[in-house]
Amino acid sequence: DVKVTQSSRYLVKRTGEKVFLECVQDMDHENMFWYRQDPGLGLRLIYFSYDVKMKEKGDIPEGYSVSREKKERFSLILESASTNQTSMYLCASSLFGTTRGEKLFFGSGTQLSVL
Amino acid sequence: TQLLEQSPQFLSIQEGENLTVYCNSSSVFSSLQWYRQEPGEGPVLLVTVVTGGEVKKLKRLTFQFGDARKDSSLHITAAQPGDTGLYLCAGHKAAGNKLTFGGGTRVLVKP
Q1: pLDDT tens, A81-90?
Q2: CATH topology for B5-95+105-110?
Q3: B43-82 burial, b if ≥16 CB within 10 A, otherwise e?
Q4: DSSP code of residue B84
Q5: Which of B30, B40, B98, B104 pairs as cysteine with B94 (C-beta 3.0–4.6 A)?
Q6: Is A99 on the interface with B (CB under 8 A)?
């Protein structure tokens, strides 16, 4: 089975800090995604990547950037953390893009608190 | 306003009862997926439906895609405590490479 591993389960940071969230997948998937999950809002796409060094903005990219230097690793960067970025962050991967019927494999999530 | 609206937001039932969760939109989707997320875990795909009117069954779970491909429902028969979780629908439009998620329905099945 595909394994998507997020480096931290819980993270507490201070306003203004630079934050790195790391995600690694072990199944040679082309596509990787970062979502944030907030109660009642479901999952909202921040950024996705369809190849190494390639990235595209999702629905809520403001305040975030990403890095994909290797196929298996996709990092989410909060350049200057703010309290409204307190959320659950979920990384996902898929063999191809999220075209019709493609399955997403999710990590267990990182609960980030910005104080 | 979300593109995919799920209802209800929360459902609490006794073991053995039936339940239905709805996922509605004014937009047409080329496919729709249902995920279940348990506490402390990421969502896990349950099913994908791609044809208008399609019905899929997964043991006690029945999934239906609306004829116009704008809505879907998930029906659980004789719910068990193991069905407890957050149920998320997600739709993909014909153009683009994004999956849009609904707000989720939290289901609690009490023994």
Answers
A1: 999 999 999 9
A2: Immunoglobulin-like (2.60.40)
A3: bebbbbbbeeebeeeeeebbbbbbeebbbbbbbbeebeee
A4: -
A5: B30
A6: yes
